From TrEMBL:
Keyword field: Oxidoreductase
GO terms of molecular function: oxidoreductase activity
Residue ranges constituting the Thioredoxin-like fold domain according to the UniProt record: 144-215
Protein origin, superkingdom: Bacteria
Descriptive protein name: NADH dehydrogenase
E.C. number: 1.6.99.3
Record flagged with keyword Oxidoreductase: yes
Enzyme kind, highest EC tier: oxidoreductase
Annotated SUPFAM superfamilies: Thioredoxin-like
InterPro entries assigned to the protein according to its UniProt record, in alphabetical order: Thioredoxin-like_fold (IPR012336), Thioredoxin-like_sf (IPR036249), TON_0319-like (IPR011903)
């Protein structure tokens, strides 16, 4: 058991405002790892999510194969576990978390479920309007660790942008579970958010939502950092 009775009661109360069904799709792999493939804490992730979805009838969980599932292949997913979070029955695929959402990232998980289940993001109106300037694909990868108290702010900022603009792909990445991916971007501290579009931008630390909006616009427009 990941959540004791006291925490279960707290989470159940936190999730009470959910109005609409939300689904979590977890892509996992099995067998021999492919060359260059990184696999995180799959069993732990599934165990934690099963306990969470059991606390609210509007939540559901589905496990799929990273290598055999058509949606995973279409999206080019290559890390396990990868969690897709979306309104049940929707085609949304741009809010993701790679790894186990534990420690401080457990709050990220709960806040994201509430965002999807209520439709409330708390992203300012001006930011929502300006975000429509992102007219080409932008990937925002927020590298985090479970012990970082500032990391949820960064991940949730990217999720808000993805919620309001389908051109934004937002991924929270548990850096310690995927060291090769972290080294690719020279991650030395967290949170560290890499924004990849026509050009690449970088945001260090937890920053206001507006900073993430402006970085996404620049990456989409091809502005050099």
């Amino acid at each position: 058991m990941f959540l004791d009775e006291k925490i279960q009661a707290q989470v159940r109360e936190m999730l009470a405002p959910l109005q609409n069904p939300v689904e979590l799709v977890v892509f996992t792999t099995s067998g021999i790892e492919l060359p260059g493939q990184e696999v995180g804490l799959q069993d732990e992730t599934l165990g934690l999510l099963k306990e969470v979805v059991a606390l609210n009838p509007n939540l559901s969980l589905e496990q799929r194969s990273l290598h055999a599932d058509p949606e995973a292949q279409a999206l080019g997913l290559s890390y396990a576990p990868t969690i897709l979070l979306r309104e049940k029955g929707s085609q949304r695929n741009n809010i993701r978390f790679l790894g186990l959402p534990a420690g401080y990232e457990f709050s990220t998980l709960i806040e994201t479920l509430l965002m999807l289940g209520t439709g409330e993001t708390k992203l300012g109106e001006k930011s929502q309007v300006d975000l429509q300037k992102v007219t080409s694909p932008v990937r925002m990868q927020a590298f985090v660790t479970p012990t970082c108290p500032y990391c949820p702010q960064a991940v949730l900022a990217t999720y808000k942008l993805a919620y309001h603009n389908p051109n934004v792909i937002a991924e929270g990445v548990e850096a310690s579970e995927f060291p090769q991916l972290s080294r690719r971007y020279n991650i030395s501290g967290v949170p560290d958010t890499i924004i990849s579009g026509a050009t690449q931008q970088r945001i260090l630390g937890g920053q206001p939502d507006r900073v993430f909006v402006e970085a996404a616009i620049k990456a989409s427009a091809g502005v050099v950092a």
